[in-house]
Amino acid sequence: MRIVFLGGFYPKERYEEIAKRSKYLGFAANELQLNILRGFDSLGYSMNAITTPTTKKLKGLVFKGSTFSHNGKTLDHCIGFIDIVGLKHIHTFYKIKNTLQKHFNKIDYIFIYSLQSSRLGAAYFHKKANPETKIILIVTDLPQYMNDTDNRLYKILKSLEIKIENKFLEAVDKFVFLSDYMKEKISLKGKPYIVMEGIYNYNDGVQPNKLYNIRTDEDISTILYTGTIDRRFGVINLIKAFHTLKNERYNLIIAGDGDSKSEIEYFSAIDSRVKYLGVLDRNKILELQQISDLLVNPRTPEGEYVKYSFPSKTMEYFASGTPTLMYRLPGVPKEYYDYCYTISDLGLETLAKEIQHILAKPKTELKEMGDKARNFILTKKNPHVQCDNILKFMKDEPV
What we know:
alpha/beta
């Protein structure tokens, strides 16, 4: 069975080059795509990959294509492009389409990562010529909720792109959603779907026997937030709630980039317990998560977009073995709430009290919660298990 994966991940051989040239790297999306490839490899169904690396404001504008192998066995293609808004999508569409035609005569399945017009379009026209090919689309984000800008031109162009994508969706046979609510926004027309909220691979940096809470100062309690620091994700609320806590033995560490950077820097200047570390590499983030006392995701259930997303940091937080505090979000399956602490209402006072309450618990209880969460992710949400469910779904077998 030949499966071709269309995505936007970074080939290992070119990661450093892309990291130096691009203003933006999609760490979570990159890991999810690599974990899909790893999962299918582990099941004996290695995919051929065609990737257009996700970049932003690329230095030099021109990105050259290349071939590589994600597992040492397959011949994979990294698509070159010119990084100019509008032109990039058209350019990559033709290149993906031509790569499918030139290098892959018979394809049983095309597996597409995300609602992205150039990938969808290339698969759409390939299926027109090869109707026996089945197309599986994993929907990770809905385009209308991916950017909250008020720019009118952007909204007009995005609306046009969504119309084009809806046309291309006619060729999709089955869907994989990160949230069950996505079915409300995608025109399924009776086509089947499965929910797969994410995948975590412990080789990403968290080992099963990792010691819990190694620290240099046992008397300091460290609260940590890592990820995008946009206001809509609640990071400023977390800082304001923490600021009301007067315990000098508490530290709050923030790592990431986003539109709240200046506000966070302000709070770190007036409260020495708040430490903003900026953008860190993934290994450093994983290390911080493992040595902290409490990981907080302050994203609230407010806003329609929350229904259609699964915060990738949930798995990363759980896998660290450090207890997690979060709100109950509609896009997160209920089973997750057996392995974390939750916040009862949206008030800053409640958030502050909950942090204080958790940090006052016995270390043995915190360790038990962290260990349970880690075991849940590493045994139930690893690449082999999650991709086995997808494979069964693809083959019309019971999941």
